[in-house]
Structure formats: C-alpha cells, structure tokens
Design brief:
One of its GO terms (molecular function) is kinase activity. Keywords: Kinase, Membrane, Phosphoprotein, Transferase, Transmembrane, Transmembrane helix. This is histidine kinase. It catalyses: ATP + protein L-histidine = ADP + protein N-phospho-L-histidine. The chain has 737 residues and is α+β, with helices and mostly antiparallel strands. Helices cover 48% and strands 22% of the residues. It has a six-stranded antiparallel beta sheet, with helices on both faces. Helix 2 runs antiparallel to helix 3, helix 3 packs antiparallel against helix 4 and helix 17 packs antiparallel against helix 18. The radius of gyration is 66 Å and the shape is rod-shaped. The two termini are 128 Å apart. The chain binds adenosine-5'-diphosphate.
C-alpha cells in the first residue's frame, strides 16, 4: 500500500491546495520568463510539466485541465516572443516537444486522478462497513485503518498507522502469534478468534479473517485483515454453554432416568442416570425399552407407549427397570409430548422415577390392610376413627358389619347411625361416651345393639383420644363384637354359680354335724327355759319375774337357732348373684360365727382383728362368706392333725391403700409346701384324701368376679396366710360380679 492510499485513508481533499496553486503559478511564471526572455536553445517549456504535476497534486481534474490550457498557451506565447518571426526548425521542434510533454503529462495526471478518485471511493466504501478493516505490512505495522477499526479499537487512523498491531492491541490468541503468522504466510489466509485490548483498556474478542496480499511475482507485500467484534456473541455463547452445562448437570442429577424421544418414539437422549441400568443406550432408539424393561412388564409398557404415541396424550406406566447388577427396580415411566405450532408432536420428554420403596410400602400397606381386614373379621373387631377438625367419622369394613350396615357412598358413618342400632336402654350412655370422647383420654364402654331383625349383639367399645395418631385422625376406637364371649361368660357365670352352690352344699355337708349340734343347743336351751318358765308359773305364787326372764332366754335361744338356720338356708339357697353395700367386718364375723361350732370341734381359736374404721364393699355377701368359710375350713383342717401346736386363726382387715381393702386369714398349721403352691388355685387340685380340690379355685373365681385378687402370702410363722384384696369402690362393678 503506498503513501497516497494511507493519506487518502483519512483525507479526501488536500488542505495544501492553494499553496500548490501559488507554487505552480510561480513555477509557470519562472519557466515562461526563461522561455520567453532568454535565448536558451533548449526546450524550457518542457518544465511546464512540473506545473501540471503540481496542480494535479491538488487532486482537481478541472484545475489540471485549466493549468494544461494555460501552460500550453504560455508555451506558445514564449515561443512567439522569443523568436519573433524567425522560426527556426529547431525552435519549432522544441515547442512541439514541450506541448507534447505538457499534453501527455496532463493526460496521465487526469487518468491518475481518476484512478485515485476510484480508489478513494473504494476506501470510502471500506469505511462504510462496520467491520474493522486494517492492513499491516510484513513487520506488523499498520498501514491502513478504517473507521470500523477506529470504533472497534478506539484508536484513530492517525494513532494507529505505523504502530505494530500486536503491541498496540496486546493481541492474544489460542495459538502463539508467530505460529499464526507462519500459517498465514504458508496458506495465504487465516481466520480465528483473537483477544485484543482497546484503547480504553477493555478487552474485546474479535473474529479475525486475514489474507496475504502478494505482488505480481507472488512475493508477500502486506496483510489485510477484517475484524468483527464477537465479544458479546462470545459472552452469550459462553453463557449459553454454561447454562447448557448446568442444565445437563441438573438433568444428570435429577433422581430419575430422564429421556427424550422423537415424535415417532425413537429415544434420542438419555441422561447419565441411565448408566445405572448397565445397558448401552447408544443408538438403540425405539428398542431401548426392550433392553431395560422387565420382560413381564414389557408388553404393558409397549402398549402404553404406543397408545401415547398414537393419541399424543401423556405416557404413564409402572414397570420394573433393569439395574446394573441385573436386578430390577419398580419405576414410574412418564412422558409428556412437546408440540409445534401445528399441534404435531415434535418431541417426547420423559422421566423414569424409582418408586421401588413406594411400591414396597404400597405392597406392605396392601398386605397389612388385608391382614387387618382379615384380623378384624376374625376377631370381630371394627375400627372407628374421628377426624376432630371436621368431625368426620370413619368406619372399617368390620365396623359396618357389626353395626349391620352395607357400606355405600350414600351412608355417612356417624353417631346417628350408631344410635339407630343401639339398644334403647344403652342409648344414653353411648351418647354420653361419644360426646365426651374428645375430652376423655380413654373410653371403655360395653353396650348392646339391636339389629333390624331383632338380633341382640353385645359390643365392647374402647376408644382413645389425645395426641393425633395420624395427621387427620384424632380419635381412634375399637368396636369388638363380644356377643359370643358375652354368651360364654353368661354360661360360665351360670356354671360358676352352680359349682359354687355345689361346693357350698359340700361345705355345709361337712359342717352338718357341728351345725346340727349348734342348732340343738339353742333348741335345748328353749326347752330348758320353757320348762323353767312352766315351773315358775306352776308355783303357788308364780314368780312372774323369773317367768319373763325364762321366756326372754327362750326367745334369745330361738333367735340364735333361727339365725343359724337362716345362715344355713342362705348358704344352701340357689340364687343369682346379688351385690349390695355391705360391711366387710360384719360379713366376716357372721361367717366366723357360722363356722364357730366347726372351729370348736377342731379346737381352733379364731381371732378377728377389725380395722379402726368401718369398711364397706360392694359384694355378694353369701359369696364372700363362702370364701371366708372355705379358707377357715381349710385352715382348721390343716391344723387338725397337729396335736402339739396351738390351733389358732387370725383374721385381719386393713385398708393400707386408697381404694382397696386387704383381708388376711392366717393359720398356725404347717403352711403350704413349696411344690404345692403353684397348683393351689388349680381346679381339682387337692392333697386331701376326701378333698374335691375346688375350694380355692371357687374362691379365686368369686374374688376375681368382685374385681379383687386372692394370693398365698409368705408368712413369718410356719402356717399359711391367704391375702384377699377387694376394691373399696366396688359400686362400679355392680354389673360384672
Ligand atoms: P380341698 O380342700 O378340697 O383339697 P382346696 O382347693 O380348698 O380343695 O384346697 C386345695 C389344697 O390346698 C388342699 O388340698 C391343701 O393341700 C392346700 N391348702 C389349702 N388351704 C391350706 C392351708 N390353710 N394350709 C395348708 N394347705 C392348704
């Protein structure tokens, strides 16, 4: 590139124009003076060429033409002045030569100007482009720098021209610059990204396209480069790349096997999770499913997938998917279609989610539900749940069955339905129990149901409220159909009563002799007192005082006999159990007095140690007395064969704890041997030759029916000590003796 081009790069019109014209005028006048007024035999006028060239340097073709005309006229004028009428052949030749020189110089200058104008236009066009266009020589010095380069790098053409481009812009590239230069010279062109620093210090990334300009002989002369600022694109590309990388990482991290398929179902992308299947997914397309889905699930999966592909609706399938170890895990295979503007499915995006744990939990739940339903059916126990917030009641299938309803959406479980089936006498307590359920930590209620066909059912309802057991249930109850056990219990109670009666009769039988004796005594006393009364009356002067004393004794003895007979009859009477509030001490003392003749017969001294305060229990006095009599009889019998020892029974009553009373019966026999202790209360266990072995067993049944306990205690003395504990507030047990 020559200097003119460099200059033209920035200046279209030369500012030194007027000076050139002045200078050209001086040269023209000087040549004219020498030509016209000296007699030199040389073609001085040839020097007008200089004038034409000077004017041409102004760049104006009009000026060139004007100057040409002027200097041609000056040449002719100079010729005419210097030669008058003497026109020598040589002079004419010099004149013609000068004119020819002037003319040809003028033509060349005009052509040159026209070329230059065209070049300038091209440069202007180069300046019009937004691309930075620059030319450097083989040393890397800038020789051309268009407007685009000025705005890209911030340096003006004046500042850039002559500078080494790489130093000026601190060029950096992926390859060493020398290597790029060598490649460029070798191949003639190069393109690539460069990083350069602008004048304001900002680094820009440019796409540089470089070509070598060679001369006619092919020698490299200069390097032409076009640079585009791609900083923004680069940043955006980096950003997009980073976003894509992040998206890829996110997709790879998603706890699921992500995939996408073409509109016709060819799997075209899978995320990294698919590696866990141990299957080479590459290029499998639609056959991928054959490789990963369990053979047993493949048919259904393919069907679902085909349906989705045909209908364009979402895929929703549950299949076992292969794992690296060859095993399978349950996965939820789901995909959604992506449609284009014409609603045609362009892509499918899917994800296989591992639902193995959920599936197992569901299976376990189904199993345990089946267990529960089965267990509820077998145990005839239904569940009732209440959602406190909405007051919604939930019944299990068995609860429906117990209440005698068919589950149906039209039927809303609730208290009304329960009351409809409840025995009229029990409705009130059911209402109260349900009303208080939320406030009471535990509801325990037995009541009766009457089915539409008149069938009577006994149910035991236990419910628990308090801290929520689950998110929506605050109250859970168990409803047990205890009809059959109630009937069994009733039968058992009846048998127990029969048995108790039988044992009482046996006991009475055992005591018959002493009791007969006990009755004959007061009867004999009645007779004696009657005789005495008669005698007192038979006196000449009847002693009325003695008579009335004797009659008094008769009445007392008769009462005594009557009492004994009453007690025996009470013991012998067969009657249902009846609870009443009775004084424990009185009850015990009565039993002792009934036993008195038998005790006397065995030479036993019985001592009752009552508590300081009266103690009442709710009990069937005949049954409790049967227990006491039984224990006293056992004690008397245990001591019967021990002649050397004192025969003593101590009965103590105390209430050491609130709500219960202890009744101890201790004898001075040899106690219960260790090996016998365990079986003591077992029915038909006896160590006696004539024993039935039912006494203690009946005692335990009676005491437990009263809500108490009977145990054999360790006694400090050698004898046996039985402890009976009874609840003091036995009123509540009234219905369950
Ligand atoms: P039975 O009196 O018909 O044997 P029980 O059930 O009343 O039936 O008593 C079972 C057994 O318990 C008796 O055979 C006896 O061995 C033992 N036993 C009961 N009371 C006493 C006692 N006070 N001292 C020692 N052994 C006793």
């Amino acid at each position: 590139m020559n200097a003119t081009l460099i200059r033209s790069n920035t200046k279209r019109a030369l500012p030194e124009g007027p000076i050139v014209f002045w200078f050209a005028a001086i040269v023209a006048l000087t040549v004219f003076s020498i030509d016209a007024f000296t007699s030199l035999d040389i073609a001085v006028a040839v020097f007008y060429v200089v004038v034409v060239l000077l004017v041409a340097s102004s760049g104006s073709d009009l000026a060139v033409m004007g100057a040409t005309v002027i200097v041609a006229m000056l040449t002719l004028a100079g010729f005419l002045i210097s030669h008058d009428s003497d026109y020598a052949g040589g002079a004419i030749a010099r004149c013609v030569l000068s004119l020819l020189a002037i003319g040809s110089t003028s033509i060349l200058s005009l052509r040159n100007l026209s070329n230059t104008a065209r070049l300038l236009e091209q440069i202007d066009m180069l300046n019009l482009t937004h691309d930075a266009v620059l030319v450097v020589d083989l040393e890397g010095r800038v020789t051309f720098w268009n407007h685009g380069a000025e705005s890209l790098y911030g340096w003006s053409a004046e500042q850039a021209l002559g500078q080494r481009i790489h130093e000026l812009t601190q060029t950096r590239a992926a390859l060493p610059l020398d290597e790029i230069h060598a490649k460029l010279l070798d191949s003639g062109s190069w393109s690539g990204e460069l990083q350069r620093v602008r004048r304001d210090g900002r680094t820009v990334t440019v796409m540089s396209r470089v070509a070598v300009w060679r001369d006619a002989k092919g020698a490299p002369r200069a390097i032409l480069a076009t640079n585009n600022d791609i900083t923004l694109q680069k940043r955006m590309a980096n950003e997009i790349e980073a976003q894509q990388a992040e998206l890829r990482a996110a997709i790879d991290t998603i706890p699921g096997m992500v995939w996408s398929a073409s509109g016709d179902g060819d799997v075209v992308y899978v995320n990294r999770r698919w590696q866990e299947s141990g299957v080479d997914t590459e290029g499998r397309g639609a056959d991928l499913w054959d490789a990963v889905v369990h053979p047993d699930d493949l048919g259904a999966m393919r069907r679902d997938w085909l349906d989705a592909l045909r209908s364009g609706s979402a895929l929703d399938n549950m299949s076992r998917v292969r794992q690296r170890d060859g095993g399978y895990r349950w996965m939820h295979i789901a995909a959604e279609p992506l449609r284009d503007a014409d609603c045609a499915v362009r892509r499918w995006y899917g994800v296989n989610t591992d639902v193995e744990a959920r599936k197992r939990a569901e299976d376990a739940l189904t199993r345990s539900e089946a267990f529960l339903v089965d267990a509820q059916r077998l145990s005839k126990t239904g569940s009732i749940g209440i959602e406190a917030v909405h007051g919604k009641m939930i019944w299990s299938a068995e609860a429906y069955r117990i209440f005698g309803y068919e589950p149906s959406p039209a039927l809303t479980p609730g208290l009304a339905l329960i009351l409809e089936r409840t025995h009229p006498e029990d409705r009130r307590q059911v209402e109260i129990a349900h009303g208080a359920a939320m406030a009471t930590p535990l509801v325990d209620l037995k009541y009766r149901l009457i089915m539409p066909d008149g069938e009577l059912k006994y149910v035991h309802y236990v419910a628990h409220s308090g801290p929520p057991l689950s998110t929506d249930l605050n109250y859970v109850g168990a409803l047990m159909d205890v009809t059959s056990s109630q009937r069994t219990q009733e039968a058992l109670t009846r048998s127990m009563a029969e048995l108790a009666h039988a044992t009482r009769m046996t006991t009475l039988g055992e005591m018959a002799a002493s009791m007969a004796h006990e009755v004959t005594q007061p009867m004999a006393a009645v007779i004696t007192s009657g005789d005495a009364a008669l005698r007192w009356l038979g006196r000449p002067e009847p002693d009325i005082g003695e008579v009335s004393r004797s009659i008094g004794q008769m009445i007392h003895s008769a009462r005594r006999a009557n009492d004994i007979v009453r007690q025996i009859r009470a013991m012998a009477r067969k009657r249902p159990s009846a609870l009443s509030r009775v004084s424990l001490v009185e009850m015990v003392e009565e039993a002792v007095s009934m036993m008195a003749p038998e005790l006397v017969r065995h030479g036993v001294i019985c001592e009752v140690q009552p508590p300081p305060d009266a103690i009442h229990v709710h009990a069937d006095s005949v049954q409790i007395q049967q227990v006491v009599v039984n224990l006293l009889l056992n004690a008397a019998q245990a001591m019967a064969d021990l002649p050397g020892k004192p025969h003593r029974i101590v009965i103590s009553i105390s209430a050491p704890r609130e709500g219960s009373v202890d009744l101890r019966i201790e004898d001075s026999g040899n106690g219960v041997p260790e090996d016998v202790r365990e079986r003591l209360f077992t029915p038909f266990f006896t160590t006696k030759t004539n024993g039935m072995g039912m006494g203690l067993s009946i005692c335990r049944s009676i005491i437990e029916a009263h809500g108490g306990r009977i145990t054999l205690e360790d006694s400090l003395a050698a004898g046996a000590r039985f402890l009976i504990t009874l609840p003091l507030d036995a009123e509540k047990k009234e219905n369950n003796p």
